[in-house]
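step=encode ok
step=design start
structure_in=
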């Protein structure tokens, strides 16, 4: 039996294999009006293709808990019931293919209100349906980005409530995994790192204070998410800064806190919070961060980052470096990667009846 294609159970939920789809924004929702943030035919076709391709878990892209929490005006949202109905169509299809549907709940913080990447990704203002970003401190992400408004303690509590409301809607939409997005320099990650968090109140300064907001969000989501279903947390294991940033040591320490607060798996990525840093990207370059968390804590992990080959993924899981792998761009290139990998590794993956003639 291939380790990559062994089922995996968290709480009462069993994933059919360890080939999972990482959240990747499509920037394809309507930007304003009654259908703002609503999933459409593009999203359905996109996620359905990965399910028919044998992927064990599909994590829907960063889905904003509020309008101002979107990365771009074209992002998906889950702050109203119209959005729930559209997402239910997707989760129903995924379950019908044996794929676990998951969703990443997100707030973009100071990196919000930007254009689509293929338009350059620059910040946009009200004339392009943009808005004033929020953050832990009035510190811009980079030159040319607006200085965010620093959240007040009252606003922080409101955002925590938005995450909880989003989790309730995610459950109503049929999702079986909720992932809190704490990576890539978005709002929760901004609070974690001293690079972006310059607060002097109970949400800034010490490690305990900088992690307070993240744990409040986790507690609020876990309180409304069913006990039988798993909760993930995505983290940037390091800011890739020489000093005054979030580090791999911080990640290991924080993983223990997350586990104690009911998180079931850490989705380990890196970077995104500091502009123009050098990241030594290469095949599997983030796997050592996941492996360290798995070795030094009791929290299961998923590895991500330039995992492209079946035997590479098999080795990561088989060697115990991670409990699962999350594929991003490789699944954009090949929606049926899981099925092809199973064939190469002598294993089995889901094949829709309509596609059996392709075997």
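sequence_out=
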């Amino acid at each position: 039996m291939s380790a990559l294609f062994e089922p995996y159970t968290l709480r009462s939920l069993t994933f059919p294999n360890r080939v999972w789809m990482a959240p990747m924004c499509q920037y394809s929702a309507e930007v304003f009006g009654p259908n703002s943030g609503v999933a459409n035919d593009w999203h359905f076709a996109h996620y359905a293709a990965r399910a028919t391709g044998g992927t064990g878990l599909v994590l829907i892209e960063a889905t904003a808990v509020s309008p101002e929490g979107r990365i771009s005006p074209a992002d998906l949202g889950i702050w109203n019931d119209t959005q729930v109905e559209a997402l239910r169509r997707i989760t129903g299809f995924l379950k019908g293919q044996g794929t676990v549907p998951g969703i990443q709940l997100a707030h973009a913080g100071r990196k919000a209100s930007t254009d689509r990447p293929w338009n350059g990704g620059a910040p946009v203002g009200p004339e392009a349906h943009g808005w004033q970003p929020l953050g832990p401190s009035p510190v811009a992400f980079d030159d040319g980005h607006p200085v965010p408004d620093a959240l007040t303690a009252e606003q922080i509590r409101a955002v925590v409530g938005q995450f909880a409301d989003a989790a309730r809607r995610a459950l109503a939409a049929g999702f079986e995994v909720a992932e809190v997005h704490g990576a890539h320099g978005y709002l929760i990650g901004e609070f974690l790192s001293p690079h972006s968090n310059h607060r002097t109140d109970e949400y800034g300064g010490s490690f305990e204070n900088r992690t307070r907001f993240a744990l409040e969000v986790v507690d609020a989501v876990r309180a409304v998410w069913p006990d039988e279903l798993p909760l993930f947390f995505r983290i940037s294991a390091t800011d890739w800064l020489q000093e005054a940033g979030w580090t791999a040591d911080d990640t290991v320490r924080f993983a223990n806190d997350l586990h104690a607060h009911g998180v079931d798996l850490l989705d380990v990525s890196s970077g995104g919070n500091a502009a123009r840093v050098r990241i030594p990207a290469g095949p599997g370059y983030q796997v050592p961060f996941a492996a360290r968390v798995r070795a030094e804590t009791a929290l299961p992990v998923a590895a991500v980052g330039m995992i492209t080959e079946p035997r590479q993924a098999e080795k990561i899981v088989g060697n115990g470096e991670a409990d699962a792998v999350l594929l991003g761009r490789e699944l954009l290139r090949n929606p049926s990667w899981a099925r092809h990998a199973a064939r190469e590794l002598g294993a089995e993956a889901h094949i829709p009846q309509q596609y059996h003639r392709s075997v």
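step=design ok
step=annotate ok -> The chain has a mean pLDDT of 97.
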